[in-house]
Specification:
Layout (H helix, E strand, L loop, with lengths): L1 H4 L4 H15 L5 H8 L3 H13 L3 E3 L6 E3 L1 H12 L2 H17 L2 E8 L2 E8 L14 E3 L4 H8 L22 H14 L2 E4 L6 E9 L5 E10 L5 H24 L4
Antiparallel strand pairs: 1-2, 3-4, 3-8, 4-5, 6-7, 7-8
Protein name: IclR family transcriptional regulator
Keywords: DNA-binding, Transcription, Transcription regulation
GO molecular function: DNA binding; DNA-binding transcription factor activity
C-alpha cells in the first residue's frame, strides 16, 4: 500500500475533490467549498481557475458562485455510451418499450444511488422524465432495490433515508424486509416512493453467480397501472432481462 501511495499526486486529488463538490451541487461559492474541504481559499481559487480555463466549470457574474458546465455532462455520457451493457441492452429496451408503450430504463448502482444509463421515453402526454445521467437514491427506486436484493449488501448505515413522499422507505429494517420480498418474487416495485403519482417496476440483470450488475424498469403514472398491466409488465421485464443476460454471457462480459 505504501508503495502504491508513492505514485499518488495529492495536488491532483485535491483538485478533483473540489471539482466533485461543484458537480454534485447546483452552485457553490468559494467560501462554501473551503468550509467543506479546508484547502484554503487561495488554493481553491487556483483550482477553480484551472477548471474554468478547461471549460469544466464556469462562474456566475451575478453572485460569483461556481457551477459545472455541459462539458462534464458530455464527458459522463462518453463513458456511459462505451459501457458494453448499454450497447447490448439497447435493442431489448426498444422491444420492451414496443410491448408496453411506457417509459423504460436501464440503470446501474454507484455508491448509495442508481444512475440512469439509458431510457426510452413514452409518447403518452402524461409522463415524468428522469433524464439519462440522473442519480436517484438506491432505497426509493425499483431499479436500485432490484439490484440491492441480488447483492450481498445488507449494511445501510451510510444511507441518509430522506423522505420524498409519504410512501418512501425510511429505515434499514424496512428496506431489508422489502429486499427479501423482491428476491422471493423476482421483481421490485416503487409505489410512488420517490415521486408522487409515479410507479415503477424493475428486475435485475444478473451475472453468472446470481448477483445483479444492472436493472431495467418500466415507469408509468400510477393512474395507468392496474393489476392486469402490472402482471404483464413483470413478465415483459423478466423476459427481456433474461435476453440481455444471455447476450452479455455470449459476449463474455458476465
Amino acid at each position: 500500500m505504501e508503495e502504491e501511495n508513492r505514485y499518488l499526486i495529492k495536488s491532483l486529488m485535491k483538485s478533483f475533490e473540489v471539482l466533485e463538490l461543484v458537480v454534485k451541487n447546483e452552485r457553490m461559492s468559494l467560501k462554501e467549498i473551503n468550509d467543506i474541504t479546508n484547502l484554503g481559499k487561495s488554493t481553491i481559487h487556483r483550482i477553480l481557475a484551472t477548471f474554468k480555463e478547461m471549460n469544466y466549470i464556469d462562474q456566475s457574474k451575478e453572485d460569483n458562485t461556481y457551477y459545472a458546465t455541459i462539458k462534464i455532462f458530455e464527458l459522463g455520457n462518453s463513458v456511459t455510451d462505451k459501457m458494453p451493457i448499454k450497447k447490448i441492452a439497447k435493442p431489448y429496451l426498444q422491444r420492451l418499450y414496443d410491448e408496453c408503450n411506457e417509459t423504460v430504463n436501464l440503470a446501474v448502482v454507484t455508491g448509495d444511488n442508481i444512475i440512469y444509463l439509458d431510457k426510452i421515453m413514452t409518447k403518452e402526454p402524461l409522463r415524468i422524465d428522469l433524464e439519462v445521467g440522473k442519480k436517484v437514491p438506491i432505497y426509493c427506486s425499483s431499479l436500485g432495490k432490484a439490484i440491492l436484493a441480488y447483492s450481498n449488501r445488507r449494511d445501510f448505515t451510510s444511507i441518509n433515508f430522506e423522505k420524498f413522499t409519504e410512501k418512501t422507505i425510511v429505515g434499514s429494517e424496512e428496506l431489508i424486509k422489502e429486499l427479501e420480498d423482491i428476491k422471493l418474487n423476482g421483481y421490485a416495485f416503487d409505489d410512488e416512493e420517490y415521486i408522487e403519482y409515479l410507479s415503477c417496476l424493475a428486475v435485475p440483470i444478473k451475472s453468472k453467480d446470481g448477483s445483479a450488475i444492472a436493472s431495467i424498469s418500466i415507469a408509468t403514472p400510477t393512474i395507468r397501472l392496474n393489476d392486469e398491466r402490472k402482471e404483464q409488465f413483470i413478465k415483459y421485464l423478466k423476459y427481456y432481462a433474461s435476453c440481455i443476460e444471455g447476450e452479455l454471457a455470449r459476449s463474455y462480459i458476465l
